[in-house]
Every structure is written in C-alpha cells, then in structure tokens.
Amino acid sequence: MGVITAVFGGVLRDIVCNDIPKVFSDHRPYALCAFLGGVILVIAHYSDLPQWAGLLAASIIAAASRMLAMIFNWQIPAWRVDR
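Request: output the structure for the sequence above.
Response:
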C-alpha cells in the first residue's frame, strides 16, 4: 500500500496540475524507497520486534533512502525500446 500511495499520489498531483507525471519521466527511485520501507516493516514484524520499533525503522529507512536519492541524484535505469 505504501508503494502505491508513494507512486500514484505523485501521479495524481501531476495530472491535476496538467503536467506529465514525473514518476514516468525522471527515473527517480520513488517506488523503490517505499518498497524498501515496506520490506523493513515486514522483517521487523517477523523478527518479533515491537510494532513501534518496526514502524520507526521502516519510516526512517524509507525517508533516508529517499533523501539520499535526492541528494546524490540517484536514478534507476530507463526502459530501452528497440524498434
């Protein structure tokens, strides 16, 4: 759910503003950062950590990875279309 919210919230924002959604054009790891936070939350759950600790760890990891991606201009590879 976090990945869907992270990606499609931005898509809806750009559509309402009559822009091409940035998620489809700038190749930044929006979904990967949200997915990483979700993976951390699942690992914390199955490790029997307290719920607050898992939520805290997942949110810190997701936010930190997103900030690092912005600071260091990380990008995911673009799709290649061979015709």
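Residues 2-71 form one domain.
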